[in-house]
Sequence to fold (215 residues):
Amino acid sequence: MRRLLATLTVLVAFLLGLPATASAAPAPIGGGSALFTLAGGHCTAAFAATGGGFGHLLAGPGCGTPPVSVYSGANTLVGPMIGGTQAHSVTRITNTAAWTPVPWINTGSGLLTITGSQQGQVGGAVCLIDRRIGTRCGTITGINQTVSFPGGVVTGLTRTNICMEPGGTPVAFVTGTKAQGVPLGGTGSCASGGSSFFTPVNRILSTYGLTLLTG
Fold:
């Protein structure tokens, strides 16, 4: 009986021009997606980009250095990290059977579709999306900043007056629906006032010859 039902299923699918079995569609992956490596590295994707026929994920530091393999979800391979510094990382999405890049950020309370990128200037408005603490907004207080972090000296950063609390999950800096940058770190606290730094997204895109994925 089971064999008969299986045969009928295949026959109906054939007559309708459909595949006998359907594979799962690739899952969306973009800003807000948790990334990790088997060596214990963890980072969070800020934005998705395209280039060379592949999707890419721009993220902060924490996942390691190239050519480490990056995973997401239930230990599902995303692809190799093709670029990484003390301030950011870039992962190529080669496992296209499992993942498809999307132009939005999962903020933890909804989806924000990115429509482009914007180079912020001193005094300009900017917001930090944090999946755990929530979105906080402020202004840009410096550009082309050089900062010494535990991993080394980083140049070309943008500074804001937005605090960055320990225990949060900073995802991305944006202005409205425009991408601003990838979070790096901060000083001070939200109780006493602090500052935070990000790598401008246009700088990362230019370095790796990528195009921001927009919706």
Remarks:
- The chain has two domains: 27-106+208-212, 112-200.
- The chain is about 10% helix and 50% strand.
